[in-house]
Amino acid sequence: MNTEKAAYKLYNTIPGRMVLKVLTMPAVSKLAGLYMDCPVSKIHIKSFVKNNNINLYDYEDKDYKSFNDFFTRKIKKYNRIVNYNPENFISPCDAKLTVCPITKDKISGNSRFKIKGSYYNLNELLRNSKLAANYEGGYCLIFRLSVDDYHRYCYIDNGKKSRNIYIKGKLHTVMPVALERKKVFSENCREYTVMRTDNFDDVIQMEVGAMLVGKIQNHDGKGKTVRGQEKGMFLYGGSTIILLVKQDIININDNIIENSKNNIETKVKFGETIAYHA
Questions:
Q1: Could you say which of 14, 20, 31, 240 has the lowest number of CB atoms within 10 Å?
Q2: Contact (Cβ atoms closer than 8 angstroms) between residue 97 and residue 146
């Protein structure tokens, strides 16, 4: 059974939902992560490469010590070109991108965005109402990483960043079937930082853990950011990065906006231009 069919059964059948209560517990992902760090887990690499059509030539040549060592493999620099033009807003990762306008709820007054039929309250997402209010009228950019994507990510601009703020939660998968049934981004474990960028005002970058990806590994605490420099990585599985951008800061590429309106994700790459300074 492939992963999409398995996820459908987990979220859409009674037996599946019973199993789901266990699988979404962080302790389960922690145990899976411990196994993926063991040398014996190397036995899964060959089938993983074949099933996901991964071209190993794109990555640095290395003798991998475990499956997680392989999963967090580094790509050759010339295979991901970072755009350093200060007018260009870049993608922090390889992913499937959806862009959502951030609007104000007429009843509650909270800033929110909508994806896959679910409304997300920014205050619930950040657990900081004052911070959430700063992004009303702006954009929420959702970068969904699947298992075949490169799982390292970078800073989108030069500047300074706050400390990393970790929020405990569950660990649902980030596959579309889960997004349709659960408020995954406000339920899952996540970590965010506020980046005071040189060119795009204050941007929030949030990494969201997913089923079997309880570990989000950010390299830096409070300090400087450098465009294109590696910010961190996810361990095994699918995961998501969310960027919150203030109103009137960027103009997002027309094809990305059009695809998002039609509920279509746009494939993007680490370092490529996805928007321009407004």
A1: 14
A2: no
